[in-house]
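Working notes for the structural subgroup meeting. M.R. asked for a predicted model of this chain before we commit to crystallization trials. I am recording the input and output together here so anyone reviewing the notebook later can reproduce the run.

Input as submitted:
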Amino acid sequence: MNRAAFALPLILLASPALAHLPHGEYGSFMAGATHPLFGLDHVLAMVVVGLWAGMIGGRATLAAPATFVLAMVAGYALALAGMALPAAEPMILASIVAFGLVAALALKLPPAAAAGLAGLFALFHGHAHGGEIGGAGALAFGLGFALATAGLHLAGFGLARALSGAGARALGALTAAAGAALALS
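Returned structure, recorded in token form:
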């Protein structure tokens, strides 16, 4: 079994309660960087975006994850500006199911459509991060979670490259099922 396949169960064991480091002890950047790494909903969505991007290839390989990060930062800015974004948590859960399904189906969308889908859901992820900033410095926290998100996308991309097509599709299906289970819990 390769390292990427071995690492995924360890990532999935992360507890959402660990998503919030004390800002004073670790600093705003580390609080932001660890936030997406220890929230199961964020990990699943961000890894599967990278998985799907690695599966679809072409320009969409970069377009979907890059747009996700940029739109997530935009959603973060909306939250910091005090603008409401209704149904953020349900949309985050829906993103896990949606991206899991597109990976399970190995759906090859044109780059603009892949980026649009990624961007739509990323706004809600970013808004949630902005709502959970606490006492952290906005710029450092935002930079931390943006870099961690890009890292999770890269991990998903690595999984797509390490697994067979059927294995990557199966991982997408498992992700969709996990998202549905989280939504129902």
